[in-house]
Design goal:
With about 250 residues, the protein is of the alpha/beta class. The protein contains eight helices and eight strands. The chain has an eight-stranded mixed sheet, with helices on both faces. β2, α1 and β3 form a beta-alpha-beta unit.
């Protein structure tokens, strides 16, 4: 069941553009939401964890207008509510596909599974979360994005292009998302559709992939990934696949 919270900043400035961000309760999604809020964007945020998402919304409500909707992106009704919330704010100009899963089930300290041992229900969930849900949500938001000549950002991974043991399910799903994004860019030339490889990051998800390892040497999302995405929005280069680190070189 969805839990919904609408939070509005007090002010008289003209309303800013609207961004929809999935997986926005922590990590890259939350840090990008904070950065966009500072730039005047209004936000529709979603994640599965209701408490974490509510806390994220509370932290942003003094900066911008925020609608938080807790739920799973694989749920048809939930996606409909996200689209309706964005339309209620005037329509989305940006859609960020950040929600993803490594395996479709809790790892609980276990290593990532080899393809030979990957439970098929988990593999199905991985593709539902990482590929099918983003496509379905894009379909719903396309009328809004078209009206605004908007943008779609699909968070990718180097595992979409490199073969790493244990990363077969996640990497294959991200490769599929990359290709779907490339096709969308061809079919919707008035939009900008970017697949962004954020690089390694110091996040809960990355720690889950490396149980027991010290990942304190990895950069935070605010070091490279968020600045890279902001650079895309500012410069609006051609649709395509980009490395976040390359977008911030020399800046």
């Amino acid at each position: 069941m969805d839990t919904t919270t609408a939070q509005t900043a007090v002010g008289t400035a003209p309303p800013g553009p609207v961004a929809v961000i999935t997986g926005a309760s922590r990590g890259l999604g939350l840090e990008l939401a904070r950065a966009l809020a500072e730039d005047g964007w209004r936000l529709v945020l979603t994640a599965r964890g209701a408490a974490e998402l509510a806390a994220a919304g509370d932290g942003l409500k003094a900066v911008t207008e925020v609608v938080t909707l807790a739920g799973s992106v694989v749920d048809d009704d939930h996606r409909e509510r996200l689209a309706a919330a964005a339309e209620g704010l005037g329509g989305a100009a940006l859609l960020v596909h950040n929600a993803s899963t490594l395996t479709g089930y809790p790892l609980d300290g276990a290593p990532l599974p080899a393809l030979a041992d990957f439970p098929l229900p988990g593999l199905l969930e991985t593709f539902e979360v990482n590929v099918l849900a983003p496509i379905a949500l894009t379909q719903l938001l396309l009328p809004q994005l078209r009206r605004r000549g908007g943008s779609v950002v699909a968070i990718s991974s180097d595992a979409a292009r490199e073969a790493y043991p244990g990363w077969g399910g996640y990497g294959a799903s991200k490769a599929a998302l990359d290709h779907a994004s490339a096709v969308l860019a061809v079919e919707e030339p008035e939009l900008r559709v970017w697949a962004v490889d954020p690089g390694d990051m110091r996040t809960v998800m990355h720690q889950d992939a490396f149980p027991g390892e010290d990942i304190s040497d990895r950069p935070l999302p605010t070091d490279t990934a968020v600045p890279g995405i902001l650079a895309l929005l500012a410069r609006r280069p051609a649709s395509g696949r980009y490395l976040a680190a390359a977008l911030t070189e020399g800046h």
